[in-house]
């Protein structure tokens, strides 16, 4: 980790982070916040008011952010009743963009007043330091609406891409898909493959689900409008590392060099992982204590991020498939309000019956710690990018079961390119029967296949840790970006 010296006056560098209001995006943004703070950067973390409130909760439960949180200010913008995305789009007088613009105007004015009162050239004596003028906005891949705000204040707009570099490369290719008539999908049965720099041809139906919506749908219009602005930003920071997606980083950077792309830089800074200090014995999660009693690399950890809600019927098959595999397991489920049906009522009896061999959890779990427990032998995952990276860093093989968003793309990468996963076979309507789940678990735990993937996972884990160690590719990426921040803060 690079820490810039006081001479760089980095404490005056103030960045505004604007992630989309979902946990899958705010979790890596919180980790980025901590990294920036450790380097002496001030952060204003902006989201909808409702989301900031839930974030505080997540922080309490999971993050225990201690370091330098006085360098962070959380700003909750009061979105319309319909939520963040709708508030951004609604032409009402209180759009999120309007609110962010107002907030930025106040922050800029305050900074310039204090700069004046502290005398010419004495930028380092700014009031409480919090009012240093924002030198850039960093949003995520769906934050196109923030770029106009940055432009208004003549500061650069950057994106922290919370998914794979291959997904970023694909999003940068969307103008070509539109020009070639590939998107919007001409018909829902259209078939074929698309070309994305640095990855093998991708089946049309493995594109992110939000791109495959009908042209007239609000979702398609919303995502398209914001994604298309990705190519307008200065710098794209990617939560990935060079050795994981070499060919994508090389291809995109070649396009930047030959000016096919307008962006200035495409930089790996990952994997950004929630690193906790040594956990006190009394803070260990019951699942970790249970894992202590299991054999090394024997447990299947099945968890599906923050946005997957299975039907009762699918939960039934999943639980029984794990049981039938005769492998120890931890099953983490998000239960929705609709999981009160008759099927889910099997869970208490199921838990009782499998108590010796399995754990079923419906609350927040310390996933990174669980994945790093030596007893975990494989991760059944929906291929959310945070989970995928956490698993890669832990050196654990994956059973890939993509559900939505860009997860099918991630699955193709993990299974076909990186060969760190095997895919869960799906039946009609993407339903997975217990027999299929049982056999895929057995296949993974077989000596021959399992140990081959395990060896590759171990190698990639070493490379992931090297990337973020001093001198590693992602560490250098972060250093490069910090220098950019200092330059733009002086330009203010
Ligand atoms: O009990 C839990 C549940 C989740 N997590 C964490 O929550 C995050 C979940 O992120 P991810 O695995 O990426 O899944 P989603 O929440 O589904 O993430 C959304 O955002 C990702 C990043 O853009 C996309 O890759 C996904 O497709 C999208 O659904 C991970 O850090 C997990 O470790 C926990 O720590 N404990």
Summary tags:
single chain, 492 residues, alpha/beta, Rossmann fold, 3 domains, seven-stranded parallel sheet, six-stranded parallel sheet, 18 helices, 15 strands, globular, binds uridine-5'-diphosphate-glucose, transferase, UDP_glucos_trans, Glycosyltransferase, UDP-glycosyltransferase activity
Write the layout of secondary structure elements.
Elements: E1 14-18, H1 23-38, E2 42-48, H2 49-63, E3 72-77, H3 84-89, H4 96-117, E4 134-139, H5 144-152, E5 157-161, H6 165-172, H7 174-179, E6 193-194, E7 202-203, H8 218-227, E8 235-238, H9 246-257, E9 265-268, H10 286-291, E10 299-302, H11 312-324, E11 329-332, H12 347-354, E12 358-361, H13 367-371, E13 376-381, H14 385-394, E14 398-400, H15 407-417, E15 421-423, H16 434-445, H17 447-468, H18 473-491
Parallel strand pairs: 1-2, 1-4, 2-3, 4-5, 5-8, 8-9, 10-11, 10-13, 11-12, 13-14, 14-15
Antiparallel strand pairs: 6-7
The structure holds uridine-5'-diphosphate-glucose.
Protein name: Glycosyltransferase
Pfam family, one: UDPGT
GO molecular function: UDP-glycosyltransferase activity
